[in-house]
C-alpha cells in the first residue's frame, strides 16, 4: 500500500539533502552528480507516489534469486549504481567489510543503521550458524523494506531488526536482548552519532578487549569527531581502510577501531 505521508516527507527530505550537497559542494563534479540524482529521485517519488527504497525492494523481488544473499547484494548494487544512488555501503567498501568480519570471526554483532538491509545481508551471509546479529533502524519505512529484503535473502532467522534510535536501544541490549559483550560493531548511521554512540557502548560495558568497531563513511560525509576520539583517547588501536564512496568516484574510507579493554 502507498504511504503518501512517507513519500511526501522522504521526497522533501531528499530535495533538502540535494540542495545542501549542491550548495556546499557546488564546484565538485561527484557532488553535482549526486545532487542531480537526488533531485531526480525526489521528483520520481512524487510522480510515482513511491519511495526509492520501495523501488529497490521491487527490483530485488523481481530480479534476485530468493534465498541467495549474493544475488540480493548484486541486484541492489546493480540498481543503485545504474539507476538511483543510495546509501548502502556498496561493493568496494563491502569487500573491506567482508574481510574485517571474516578475520574477527564474531559471535555477537551490532549494526547501527540498517537502511534497506544491504550491509545486514552482506554481513550475515558470512556468519556461521548460531551467531547473533542485531541491526538498529529508527525509520519504520526503511525497517519494513529491510525486513522484506532480509527475508527474501533467506536470512531472517539470523537477523534481529531493532526499531528505534540507537541512543534508546544500546542501553537495552544487556537486559532486554541478553547481550554480554559485542564482538563486532558496524557503525553506519548518522555521522554525528558515531562518537556519542561509541562512548555509550563503552559506558554500557558492551565492548571487551578485542571488540572491533568498524565505521563507514569517515571521509564522506565524514565523522571527524569520531576519528579524533578513537585515534587519540588511548582506548583503541586504529586502522584506516581507504576506498571510495558507494557508487561514486569519490574518496571515502572505513576506520577499524579495536577496543583495548
Ligand atoms: C547509511 S544508512 C545505513 C546503510 C546500511 N548500513 C547499509 O550499508 O546497507 C544509515 C541509516 O541509519 C539510520 N539512522 C540514523 N541515525 C540513527 C539512529 N540514531 N538510530 C537508528 N537509526 C539511525 C537512518 O535512518 C538510515 O537508514
Ligand atoms: Mg555508509
UniProtKB/TrEMBL annotation:
Q: Which organism is it from?
A: Xenopus tropicalis (Western clawed frog)
Q: Which family is this sequence assigned to?
A: Belongs to the class I-like SAM-binding methyltransferase superfamily. Cation-dependent O-methyltransferase family.
Q: Where does Mg(2+) bind?
A: 188, 216-217
An example of a Gene Ontology cellular component annotation for this protein is: membrane
The kind of enzyme this is, by top-level EC class, is transferase
Quickly give the catalysed reaction. a catechol + S-adenosyl-L-methionine = a guaiacol + S-adenosyl-L-homocysteine + H(+)
Function noted in UniProt: Catalyzes the O-methylation, and thereby the inactivation, of catecholamine neurotransmitters and catechol hormones.
What gene codes for this chain? comt
Q: What is this protein called?
A: Catechol O-methyltransferase
Q: GO molecular function: any one?
A: magnesium ion binding
Q: Which CDD domains match?
A: AdoMet_MTases (cd02440)
